[in-house]
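Project standup — Tuesday

K.O.: blocked on the structure for the chain from last sprint. Re-posting the sequence here as requested.
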Amino acid sequence: MGGNVYVLNDLECRYLTHVLDDAYNRLKDDYLESSALGPARLYSARDSTDKEFWALFCALIDFQIPVVSILNPMLKGLLSYMEEHGIKFIDLLDEEDLARNVFTNFQWKSSTGVKRGFRHRFVKIEDLIELLTIFKRVIGDYGSLRTIVEDAYKCSLHLEEPMEAVLHTLVGVFRKYGGRPPLTPVRFSSPLKRLNLFMRWMVRPYPDLGLWDFISKRHLLVSLDEGLRRVLSRAFCVKVGMSWDGVVGATRFLRRINPGDPVKYDYLLSRVSIKGYCTKDLSRTRCYLCPLINVCRSSNFTPKPKTSSLKGKEREIFERFLSRYGHEYDSIHSEFPLGNYTADALLHKLNCETQIVEVEEQLNYNAIGQVLIYRYLYFKIYGKAAKPIVICTRSRRELKEACEREQGITVIEVGYIR
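H.V.: unblocked you, prediction finished:
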């Protein structure tokens, strides 16, 4: 890592953990739709070895291809075809003609219509056949992937990074059996993103597969790509390269946030880039939807301190809200001071949930940013979490869904007020 790493103090670390945990719980099911993990989970084989190789297959072909529009529909189509014809994935390892026929003839639905057969810009069916041949030789010599990984892991527990040795072993196995790019790595200098992704699937619990409980989550390593590297650099000044050293450096930073499960937030931090919130062009970022908005060193959102009291239309909106929902609260403080800011309200529900409130006539980016500032300042001052709430007359559906899903902001519409 570079020398200018943003050192998180205890409060910042606790706040970041709270925000990321909250986002993880909201979005973990979404991961199944926007990752090859979705099709990997769909495979209902009883044989654990069969499941292992299907998951590895899904991980290894997950590169340079749109996941939502092409990869996942294609993998789901392949699964449907095998299920319809009573074929197990492991059967394809033993019968080359069967595998070639399946990969050529299965159908799947894309956004442009029904497609036939496996399609990938950089992977041909012959590459898949070669990969299955490697899988077959692994079974013949070791019995399963688990055997290789478990033996390597147990022999490496004395090392600072046991998974480094495990992946080194796997790369060696691939190379011994004739593996080659693009599907199997042969050099250990790269980030090995797809193998680290596979390991996370196999070890972590839902939404991951959780099939290998013999590996400790604290030893897992991040699946580093350009998007994750950009987010770490901008948010925390963690400068890492697209190399194995970069993987180790990024993982060790995340262990400061979550020592026992550093890759838990792997997908969430990558999502900041995937969703277009943190773009290559810093001037085009959409920080108001990013869960790192209050701790990111490069955030371009700097709202002016709001100190004015509720008045006019905002007062009417808040009063209408209270007339409908006031019975749900045992404490209501309007114009609640937070340092240089003043939240429109601090509410405490009968179920003990604390809410921090911004009132706006219409949901907009400024309202989102303001209430996120309130959430951060309340945590900073009082050391406790408050649920961010925006009360408004109306909102655009897309913006409402985005801020509720991405930021955990509850949007309450009270209807038009003359």
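K.O.: great, moving the ticket to review. The first strand starts at residue 107 and ends at 110. The CA atoms of residues 313 and 361 lie 7 Å apart.
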